[in-house]
Structure formats: C-alpha cells, structure tokens
Write a structure and sequence with these properties.
This protein is of the alpha/beta class. The chain has 13 helices and 19 strands. It has helices at 22-42, 56-72, 94-113, 129-138, 154-164, 209-213, 221-233, 259-267, 287-295, 312-317, 324-337, 356-369, 396-420; strands spanning 47-52, 75-76, 84-89, 118-123, 144-146, 168-170, 191-195, 197-198, 217-218, 238-242, 274-278, 302-304, 342-349, 373-378, 425-433, 440-445, 450-454, 463-471, 475-480. Helix 4 (129-138) links the parallel strand 4 and strand 5. Helix 1 packs across helix 2 and helix 8 (259-267) packs parallel to helix 9 (287-295). It binds 5'-deoxyadenosine and iron/sulfur cluster (SF4). The site of iron/sulfur cluster has 10 residues, from helix 6.
Length: 482
Amino acid sequence: MYHEIDLDKIDLNSEPPTDEPARQYYFMAKCREWVREFERKNGRRPSAFIQTFGCQMNAKDSEKITAVLEYIGYQETEGPLADFVLFNTCTVRENANMKIYGRLGYLKNHKRENPLMKIALCGCMMQEPDEVERIKKSYPFVDLVFGTHNIYKLAELLYTQIQSGRLVMDVWQEPGDIVEDLPGKRKYPFKTGVNIMYGCNNFCSYCIVPYVRGRERSRGPEDILEEIRGLVRDGVKEVMLLGQNVNSYGKTLEHPVSFASLLCRVNEIEGLERIRFMTSHPKDLSDELIDAMAACGKVCSHLHLPLQSGSSRILEKMNRRYTKEQYLGLVSKIRAKLPDISLTTDIIVGFPGETEEDFEETLDVVRSVRYDSAYTFIYSKRSGTPAAAMEDQVPKEVVKERFDRLLKEIQRISAEITDSRVGQTVRVMAEEVNGQDAALITGRLSNNATVHFPGEKGMIGSILDVKLIESRGFYYMGEVVQ
Ligand code: 5AD
Ligand code: SF4
C-alpha cells in the first residue's frame, strides 16, 4: 500500500533522489508546482482524460496513472478534449492499433484549437518499434510516449516534457525492477485489481504479449498481502488477482510460492469478501489450485480458462501445450470438485491452417463444456509472432462464416445456462447505478454474471441477496430479498 507522502514537504531545490519511489514523489512535487502555476494563469486546474484499451492489466495500469495525475493536481474529465489526453494502448489484435490511429487523427485538429493540450501514448502498442516509428513520422503532435515497463516513471517523464516542450519518448525493451508504493487509486471504491505478476513466458504462436510485456516476474507474496490488507482497510471488498498466467505465479521467486498457497493466504484476510483471478493457462492449472478454490470460501465461483481452439492439431501449432482431451479432462476434474462453477473462455477463429474439421472440434468442446460465456476473436496476424509467418492463412469469408456460427452456438448455450438459474436467490455485489435506468442498480453474481434490480445508490459496494426474476440472454433482472 502506498504511503501518503506530503509533496509540499519535498525539497525541490535539492537534486532528485536516485532511489525509487522517492524519485517519482520528487517529480510529482515538481509537477504539482507546475499545476499551481497553470491554475494561476488559466483560472482552473488542468484536466486529464485517460482512455484504456485492452485487458484488465491495462485497466490496472490506467488506475495507477490516474492516481499519479490526481496526486499531481490534474482533474479527471470524461470528454476527450482535455489538457492531457492519454491513450493506454493494446496491440493484441490489429484493430486495436487502428483505433488508436483513428483517435489521434481526431485529436489533431482539436490540439490546434487548444494549444495547452498534451497528447500521450503508453501501453503495449508502444513496445513495438514499428508503431513508434510510425507515430514519430506521421503524428508529430504527440508529446509523450512510454511503454509497459516504466509506467511508474510517469511523473518524471511528464515533468521532462513540460520543461522541454518537446516529444519525450521512453520505451524500455526490458522490464526493470518492480517499483512498490506509488499512489493508488480505484475506479470503484469497493473493488480493484491487484497485480501479482507481470509478463508472460508462454509464447503462444499467435500472441504478441510476451514481446510487449516481457518475461514473467512475480511480486513477493508479502507485498501483495500487504497491499490487499491496506485496500481492505480502505473499503475494498473484492480483489481481482491479475497476471497473464497466474498459475505460474511464484515460480521465479527466490523462495518459490504456488498460486494456490497465495490464494489461501489472501482468503484469510479479514474484511475481504470476494476474490477473483485472471488469467489461468490450462497447461499450468494444478490440482492444488482446484482444491484451494474449493476450500477458500471467498474465491468466486468462476474460472476463465482460455481454450483458443478445440483442435489438438491447431493447439499444437498455437504452442498451447495441451490437447483437446487434456483440456476436457481438466474441465471434468474441475467440475467434479466445483460442481457449480461457471466457466468462461477465449476462442480464436481462423488460426492459420484451421480446416472445417478443426473448427468442428472447437464447436464440439463448446458444446461439451457449456461455457457461461466466451470471448471470441477472429485471428489477427501480429508481425513478429511465429504464426504470422505460417502458410495457409484462412480466407476472410470462411473465418467470418465460422465466427458467426461459433457465436450463435455460444449465445444459445449461454442463454440456456442463464435461464436455468432463474428463481434462485444469490449473493450479489451492488456495483453501480444502471447507465440506462437510474432506478436500477447493476450488480454482479459470484459467477461474474450481471443482474439489474430496483435499488438505490446507497446499496453500492454492499453484497445483497437478490432473487433472479428473469433472464435476458446473458444477464438477469432481479429483486432484492429483504
Ligand atoms: N488474434 C486473435 N486473438 C488473439 N488473442 C491473442 N492474440 C490474438 C491474435 N493474434 C486473444 C486470445 C487471448 C485473448 C486475450 O486475446 O484469445 O486469450
Ligand atoms: Fe499470450 Fe499465450 Fe501468454 Fe496468454 S499465455 S498472454 S495467449 S502468450
């Protein structure tokens, strides 16, 4: 947990400290001085808009970024035309990159109108040298670029940019040390993600993540537990333990610790009510973890277990290191010990060389596992990954047709599963006022499904008993049971 440091007590005439995080607090203080100057000149605080693309990891990184900006004195806004606009980018599929270029094009003219506007880019796409080159060449109005390994340096980079007025670009190809104790901030007061590890060593042949997020590094269990205890003291009831492959947590620590044992220790934290985690690689999911999930009452009844493909032949080409049969065996083992668990998954359609038979195997797994829901993706060629060089890229029309068929099947099963729970009374975390109807509260079941029910703002952050009255395909309408 971060320690509230009084920025006004930092001596700004001294040299910046060399150790972290003290160095960053020094630059936060420097930036705050600049913010005060801005306020004097413009009669308002500078505004900041952060847009996050991609996964939970990026969402967590954006929380950290927002915390630093707020600490400095920026005011967060909803609109994209702020004094500081930052896109936290994703590059896992090509259309994610295209979105960023679209957004930059849109901002270009607005920046002419508001010369105070600073445009910053960070995240996975910035770890790709070709993309950074393109930005330098074609988007000269960008002010700040940093990557996934040096987010903690935001204050220093921002200060350097403010001082120089020029493009500041700092992207590290290799991760540095994990820096603890920076300011914390949460989108929701009652739930948040907690990084337990960074990076990925799996090199699935289609995936760019290992190249942009680096090798696996785990945080020490004590740091994690201390952070969660602090969060709970601060009102958090639910944590999501985050890592690209949480099942290999702790293997590289000086004193190795398993993910299962970490989970049990988190489960013991008093005041914490719900624990989720993301993502599990099927090849590393141990019996010890299944037992821990069964034994730890706070662990939610949900497991996200990416399948990617149901064909053993394609799985091998994907370098997933399990077969269809091993995956199904794992699911049976999980269901035997956790009969009520909701399973969700990720599936890629149109991986190079995927035939109709391979695709049928995927449908077969979908029908036998019966996922509560699934994220389906059209294969996207990422240059630099082994799959990009594979022959037999599947024609677009074929992929589209398979994708639609898969989606239909998933939605059909998902609706059946959702329907089957109607009538039950379940524990629900009230999360927010419904965006469409302010008389409704939107909450989340332990299995991650959502339910909307009549209620009021004061309920947010509490866990309530809600009766599921009606299924609407993949969510419910419900009623609080007194
Ligand atoms: N094309 C399509 N989907 C991909 N994913 C990762 N890389 C690609 C790619 N090149 C999907 C996987 C992963 C999810 C986060 O994104 O299904 O589990
Ligand atoms: Fe990508 Fe595979 Fe690592 Fe997941 S496990 S981040 S799909 S390489």
